[in-house]
Amino acid sequence: MTxxxxxxxMLDTASYTLHVSGDPRxxxxxxxLAAKTAETAGAAPGDATRLADAVGVIMDTVIKAVAxxxxxxxxxxxFNVHADALRVxxxxxxxxxxxxxxxxxxxxxxRGHDGELRALxxxxxxxxxxxxxxxxxxxxxxxxx
Length: 145
Fold this sequence. Notes:
Layout: H1 4-11, E1 15-20, H2 27-41, H3 45-65, E2 75-81, E3 85-92, H4 104-110, H5 114-120, E4 125-129, E5 132-140
Antiparallel strand pairs: 1-2, 2-3, 3-5, 4-5
């Protein structure tokens, strides 16, 4: 089966993961990809922009927390498209040399980005699982037929 309806059904379960280095030049690419993925998944333009901006705030914070732009794979950004929402999961290890008790959420607060992030993504969730620091963002979109 081909055509728009089957393409929409395939997108309902699409997912992919980016492995991002510490090079700040990649931040704009990931921002643009987040916006385009949200738009393609069916999010309203304003919602897609807010999601991309939220991903950008997290990336900016993480990149500044990393000592070297050449640090490989500082984070993974996973995009999961579901029938009702785009879910973005950002996972990372603490940066090299991070103080004891470091978390992504604390780093956002320390750099003054927590309020900005919560304004863009009010339902942002943080979790620590083993050594992985995880941030979850959700961008709802209307169901497609």
